[in-house]
Amino acid sequence: MEHMTGLENENIKNITDIMREAVKNSEGYRFEKIAKELEQIPNIWCTDDYDSNGKWYIISRSDGKTVIEDYGYLSSEYPIAFLFDTCPKEVREKLLDNQVLIDDYSEKCCCDEEVLGKYINKRFLDDRFMYDYNLPFNEEVFIEIDDGACYINPYNFCFTDLLEDSYTL
Predict the structure, then answer these.
(1) What does pTM read for this prediction?
(2) Which residues contact 141 (CB under 8 A, 6 or more apart)?
(3) Where are the domains of the chain?
(4) Residue 79 confidence (pLDDT)
(5) Gap between the Cα atoms of 113 and 14, Å rounded
């Protein structure tokens, strides 16, 4: 994302390349098979409990009754997972054995709109002008935001924004 004005000093991870690569590698991706294989590992769950649109499954450790620790997110549509540092080697290896691309989880992300649009059905609005006074004020976008527009800023979003309900554009 060449025009990252105002974000250069923040810890924002650009996930465009890996997400684009996952889209390219999606032919033959068998998510259900991989999820079942993960759940063959003792005390590992792979569920969409945290994702209202069913596109990201949480990989976690359980005691058989409840989640004890989250290890990361696995896409149900594309061969990609974002994993926490605490994710066990056995889970990582199972994903790699199934040609799933792995990246470290980062709360703050950015991604090219075209690529991000493959993963979510949300409207894109660039609201950087609201916190970077070096950028010109955009009254049209401000009015939409002020009116309660549901959107995502592809230049600065939280990974958890990908887990929220989609809406019709």
Answers:
(1) 0.83
(2) 125, 126, 127, 129
(3) 13-163
(4) 98
(5) 12
